[in-house]
Amino acid sequence: MARYRGPKNRLARREGIDLGLKTAGSHAHASLLRRLKITPGQHGQKRGRKPSDYGIQLREKQKVRRIYGVLEKQFRKYFDTASRDKGNTGEALMVALERRLDNVIYRLNLAPTRTSARQFISHGHVTVDGKKVNIPSFLVEKDMVISYKPKFTGNPLIKKMLEDKSPNIAAWLEKKGPAGKVSRLPTRADIGEDINEQLIIEFYSR
Questions:
Q1: How far apart are CA 180 and CA 148, in angstroms?
Q2: Crossing angle (nearest 10°) for helices 53-68 and 89-98
Q3: Is residue 15 pLDDT above 50, yes or no?
Q4: In what residue span(s) does the RNA-binding S4 domain sit (predicted)?
Q5: Contact predicate 163/179, CB 8 Å
Q6: Chain centroid to CA 14
Q7: Structural contact between residues 173 and 140, judged by C-beta atoms closer than 8 angstroms
Q8: Which domains does the chain have, with CATH numbers?
Q9: First to last CA, the chain
Q10: Of 99, 84, 90, 83, which Cα lies nearest the Cα of 57?
Q11: Closest CA relative to residue 98, chosen from 76, 122, 70, 125
């Protein structure tokens, strides 16, 4: 399945929440929030059919998949791995997604979106413990240090991100300049998005 390359806000409207896929000014962001309750398409506003249990489960799965930018086949692999975990399947799934390197760059406020973080990683601008890692799905471990290569910190977008005096950094991460450290592995409580992972479990258990 190819990665979606259409309008980012269309996906947000389809799921009814801001997926954090697009950087926008305050006016554009407010406009998106006003339209989130309207599904895409000419007759989106008129759709009033009550969704089935399957439809609700599918939408939750799609929402989480789109938040983290994961393709269907890869997302299923995450679920299958989580289902083999001795603990809670839903929590194991969410923690694995949260540990993705592209998400870590985003959570460190070193990229405006997970999409841009994915691009920075794929283009070889990111190091983990001093070694280049160009795989966005790389899973970080405790005490790993994530950083940009020195030359890349001159990028105008990165310079602007680093000038943010009050960045919103995930509680399980530490940040100093263009580098961050995994102080501990994330827990389900660290994930602020409105997600019901039980619906995803029910979707794959049908």
A1: 10
A2: 30
A3: no
A4: 99-158
A5: no
A6: 17
A7: no
A8: 1-49 (no CATH), 52-99+194-206 (1.10.1050.10), 100-185 (3.10.290.10)
A9: 22
A10: 90
A11: 70
Residue 165 pLDDT > 90: no
DSSP summary character for residue 142: T
Residue 145 is classified by DSSP as: E
Dist CA 107 CA 80 (whole Å): 25
Mean pLDDT score of the chain: 87
The token pair at 10 is 């269309």
For the ranges 41-45, 52-56, 92-96, 163-167, the lowest mean pLDDT is seen at 41-45
Q: Which residues contact 170 (CB under 8 A, 6 or more apart)?
A: 107, 108, 186, 190
Q: How many CA atoms lie within 13 A of 81 on its CB side?
A: 12
Q: What's the mean pLDDT in 110-115? A: 96
Q: Write down the pLDDT at residue 31.
A: 54
Q: CA–CA separation, 142 vs 64, rounded Å?
A: 24
Half-sphere exposure at residue 11, Cβ-oriented, CA atoms within 13 angstroms? 19
In the Cβ-directed half-sphere of 48, how many Cα atoms lie within 13 Å?
1
